[in-house]
Give the backbone structure.
Amino acid sequence: MYKKLILLAAAFVLASNVSIQARALDWGSSVNAQGFQQDGVTPLNDAFVFYLGVFANGFTPTNANVDDWAANWTTVDAVNYNPAYKVFNARHTTSATDPAAGTQGYIWGIRRDKALNEWILITDSTWLWPENSLFGLKETWTVRMASEAIVGSINDSNYQMMTQNVGDAPLPSIDYAIWAKRFFADGDPNADSEADPDSNGLANMAEFALDGDPVGQGRESNIESGVFEVVEPLQPQESEGQRYLAVIVKPSVDASVNISGTLATDPGFSENVEAAVVEQLEDGSLMVRDPTPVDDMTQQKFLRVQFD
């Protein structure tokens, strides 16, 4: 009896030194596995992004309710598709902000182009959101392991995945933190919203708002500044419009961001500051402009566009 008590005491001390640990969730596709767009011929390209996440409790995604997916979706992780290696893969580490343990998980691939809106959504009955564990064991979710494609198709003899056109179904909006995961590893200082890792003069927050590439080269083409003529809609098209100091930006199709502007008579924006007018153009771009026409300006002005 005395020996048994000593052994139990030793076991209790050992167990008390073991803590609950976060778990790694590796998710993605196989390297060099063929992926096609919906025509079954065109390979997936770098316009595709894959999201890891869950749908709202009580909502079951089907091919018939794609218009409701975005409103019921929560993105947890994101990664770009790499066409050079025909692969997407990432690692998510569980945290306190994760979905509830046991929630059904999904991988949602999206071509981020409203004119060519192609998706693939896959899952498996075993993809239940992991909770922290005693030993922090790794979880793995891959296309090859998936058993169901709600939209698109998977694991055919000729390809690992193929997307499907979903018409004008809305894209899910993402915040800056999720967008940064597409380009930067967790903890990378270059992921800061004010950083400019490609030194093109646009901070990461602006790249996010304008659908830019924060690690690419050169200034993005989706921003243009100058003096533009604006014709009022009620006037005949041949009428001359007013000219305004303005910046035209093409916002991202899925960024959850507010674009605004301010004007001032000094570059430090310390005096005579006023709000700019923001108008949507026919092609979906935004014009951020001075409310006063150039011909009526009495002094030099500076226009600043802000992304929040």
In short: The longest helix spans residues 2-16.
